[in-house]
Amino acid sequence: MKEIKPKECVVCGEDFMPFKTTERVCSLTCALAYAKSDVDKKNAKAWRKEKKIRKEKLKTQSDWLQDLQKVFNEFIRISQKGSKCISCTNDEPTDAGHYRSVGAHPELRFEEKNVNLQCRKCNGYWGGNLIEYRKGLVKKYGIEVVEWLEGPHEPVKLSIPEIKEKIEYYRGKIREMKKKAVV
Description:
By secondary structure, the protein is mainly alpha-helical. It is about 55% helix and about 5% strand. It contains seven helices and four strands. The protein has helices at about 30-35, 40-60, 60-80, 120-125, 130-140, 145-150, 160-180, and strands spanning about 5-10, 15, 95-100, 115-120. Strands 1-2 form a two-stranded antiparallel ribbon. A two-stranded antiparallel sheet has the order 3-4. It is elongated, with a radius of gyration of 27 Å.
């Protein structure tokens, strides 16, 4: 068993013999004073801030892309709120569905005209319902845009700073749209 050593009370500064290794105060009076103080709250706040910084340093490019995808999808959902499913005209679409898939066409992953609101059935269960999706795109943007989406594109490899920049851009757009919706 580990030997417990004398400690210094964090409130009054006197030495005391703790019963447990986690004790920080010498008496009930000091415990009450410590509970009323902001010492632990300040330490916890500083720790949360440091932990957030550490986590960000450990993120890979893939992690940052996932973060960007979440923000981008939220942007699509808010910007197209009130629209019907582009594939089947369902009144309550919940997904941000890609016409050209992320796996096959990563260069179009964050192209706003490639991503539109879809219902869960079309996007998930029917694999995008692409024939009807294409018809919806032609109606919404015109045949030129659809042919451009279907055409060849240069590969895009975003660096972490570019990804962070896009995250901030879309977060700003989301904030603007939410403010307009409230007013």
